[in-house]
Design a protein that fits this description.
The chain has 264 residues and is an alpha+beta fold. Helix content is 36%, strand content 28%. The chain is globular, with a radius of gyration of 17 Å. The mean pLDDT is 94.
């Protein structure tokens, strides 16, 4: 059970994610024209990202004027009551017309994750969780996979150019040698939601920003999974490494990352 105040915020966040996702999808389908540009090597942003984040910020300011907002595009503050927003996670996929991207909205109190919402407009799937209230796909309770062998597992490994390439390749090599199937679908928040739903058995990435990681990590937690402590020593502004997995393979994955020198 969760309290009435948190439940009201959850309901609002779910509605907001759908509204934001609806706007993003109009851009994706080119009902609204837009151009994309890069912020760095394979680090894309578009007018769609900016418009969706502005919508989310406006709605949150209207509903919860005392809260702060920390977003990928506009930055912001991390107050005691803070919303962390990635308006379009998977922008590289988005601008190339690939249907694997999402809206990610999290709510934290004094740095502790309390609400996580990940919405996939392409499939109209809304994943959500509140601390102590379980993890859900719309009205269906979700759980991580019962996987207990790495050689039967489907593991997602996130990579962007800011990550050390050799470290990434070592991790992938060790996973393949252990018999795992390895993918990178290109949207960390959605991959975490799919771990929570039991579709993937694990997700790992050497560093994720809080606006990408927080909602999905709460989903995994509430779905019965295990994850590394997050964030790192620098707190939410600095982010940190992410490993989230079915309990039966978590320890072997943690040891594999240590072998690869990928745990910081």
């Amino acid at each position: 059970m969760i309290g009435a105040e948190l439940a009201a915020r959850v309901d609002f966040a779910r509605r907001l994610a759908r509204e934001a996702g609806g706007l993003a999808k109009r851009y994706f389908l080119h009902e609204i024209a837009f151009e994309a540009r890069t912020k760095g090597a394979q680090d894309w942003v578009s007018a769609a990202d900016l418009a969706v984040e502005e919508l989310i910020r406006r709605r949150l300011a209207e509903a919860f004027p005392g809260d702060t907002v920390y977003g990928e595009e506009g930055g912001g503050e991390l107050g005691t009551h803070a919303w962390l927003v990635d308006p379009i996670d998977g922008t590289l996929n988005f601008v190339h017309g690939v249907r694997y991207w999402c809206v990610s909205i999290a709510f934290a109190v004094a740095g502790e994750r309390r609400i996580g919402v990940v919405y996939d407009p392409s499939l109209d799937e809304l994943f959500w969780a509140a601390k102590g209230g379980g993890a859900w796909s719309d009205a269906t309770r979700i759980h991580v996979a019962p996987r207990d062998r790495l050689d039967y597992a489907l593991v997602c490994v996130g990579y962007v150019p800011r990550h050390p390439l050799e470290e990434h390749l070592r991790v992938k090599r060790l996973l393949h040698e252990a018999g795992a199937a390895v993918k990178d679908m290109g949207a960390g928040a959605l991959m975490l939601a799919h771990v929570a739903a039991g579709r993937y058995d694990a997700f790992l990435e050497p560093h994720m920003n809080a606006w990408d990681a927080l909602a999905g990590l709460l989903l995994v937690d509430e779905a019965g999974g295990r994850s590394l402590p997050y964030p790192g020593a620098g707190g939410l502004p600095s982010g940190g490494p992410v490993l989230a997995a079915a309990p039966g393979i978590f320890d072997v994955l943690a040891r594999l990352l240590q072998r690869a020198g990928a745990t910081g």
